[in-house]
Design goal:
The protein is α+β, with helices and mostly antiparallel strands and 522 residues long. The chain has helices spanning 2-14, 103-113, 125-129, 192-204, 231-239, 249-262, 286-296, 315-324, 335-344, 346-350, 463-479, 489-498, 507-521, and strands at residues 27-31, 49-53, 86-87, 93-97, 143-152, 155-167, 176-183, 211-217, 221-228, 268-275, 302-307, 327-331, 352-363, 368-374, 394-397, 401-410, 431-441, 448-455. Helix 7 (286-296) links the parallel strand 10 and strand 11. Residues 1-71 have low confidence and may be disordered.
Amino acid sequence: MKKWLLILLATYSFADTNSTDKNISKQILHPIPHYVPPFQKQRLVAPRIRVQPLSYRKPLLGLPRPIPNFSSRGETYNFTSENSFKTVSTDPLSTFSIDVDTASYSNTRRFLRRDTLPPKDSIRIEEMVNYFDYDYRNSTDTLKVFSEVGVAPWKPENLLLKIGIKGKELETLPDNNLVFLIDVSGSMSSKMRIVKNSLKILTRNLKSRDRVSIVTYASTTAVLLKATSDKEKIVEAIDSILAWGSTFGEGGIELAYSEAEKSKIDGNNRIVLITDGDFNVGLGTVSEMENLIEKKRESGIFLTVAGVGMGNYRDDMVETLADKGNGNYFYIDSILEAKKIFSEDLVSNLHTVAKDTKIQVEFNPKYVAEYRLIGYENRKLENRDFKDDKKDAGEIGVGDEVTAFYEIVPSDGNFSSSLKYQNISLKDSKELLTLKVRYKEVEENSSKEIVHTVQNSKDVVSQDFQFASAVISFGMLLKESKFSGNLSYEKVLEIAKESKGEDNDGLRAEFIKLVETAKLLQ
């Protein structure tokens, strides 16, 4: 019996579906176990062996799987240092690309629901803020700008500037040509249920004229389904997916863009990629994939990326793919999050209304001594990039919202320059700052510009402003920010509870629970 158990263990470990072997032509031993009833008194023999190529490897059935322990040690995140304060007298301009991604918040929720504090590098405050809806209204302009000025909760002598941008709503939406690009490698085996259910939700919410094709990749790539509008066929193809093998992400991306080109329409052409980002065959570094995606985005095909999984999750890879592919990035931690992304927010997540959207703020040194942009560390641009229409920037969807915050150190109004060759005099203006937004219409290659001024006055801030400031504060605590001042979890809870508002979707109440969890774990 001991000999029989040793044979089973050896063959089981040999067929490990999480293998990262890069030699895709390697042959492996795939055992076919035999069952011998215990009452039969006969000598056990070694099981028959069948040799199969890696590309046809399937998980063994009937053998127990170990239960994985939750750990983030195998997960990778981009390190970004926080934006520091800039002095207005020397750096009056601040320029960055907008970002509508929300992945960092749902990923943070995933950790806290498992009673674990998230890694500091996983916290992107702008994505946490943009997870929530705010009361921006726009029905006519492609983009509309909003602003509020209040007090920074962590340092009451400083001001907090809120900038909001809202994309217009559309009564008639263009048709969709979508390619579902699905990572079906061995590392995805435990995640396939959430992947399939997420794609089914998306499929059921498409219009009858929308078309879907399906591309899969593991050790090899395949077109699982040619472009069709038949939802029953789409769901049937999704149900047929099995996870196995290595991760040839490069090949999958190449094939997906090729299929999108073949079925391209005069409408919305987009790839929807679901993956854990763990590429181990072909191009595998972040910089290599970045170069590949930058070339592909010239095709006019957008990229939406949904991350799944834990333990081996590569946030750095997945975020880069979305940022460089003219798309958006989400993290699916539950079926309810899939419903939010692919049902409730489907229109804004799939349909772009403005592309290459950039913001530039000019601060008035009469009222502002210093400022810092909160979050958006990996979205900063050079000031000269603002008017460069060749410079890639962020996209805003139909009815979508983007929110950004600056912390401001007020000036005493006695600005003077000590430069020998420059004589700077202050204009007699009541403006705190001037905000400019540049964007392109979806079918255009030249930018339009919006100019919005903010007066030097403290507003009676809205509940939305207060709640967003609580989200920022929470992110700063999780990130152990050097700018957090006198912040505490108790203070965050106080602000969040006071500003929860109607909260019809329950997301703000859920946020309060997450803060309470983090408080207990600190």
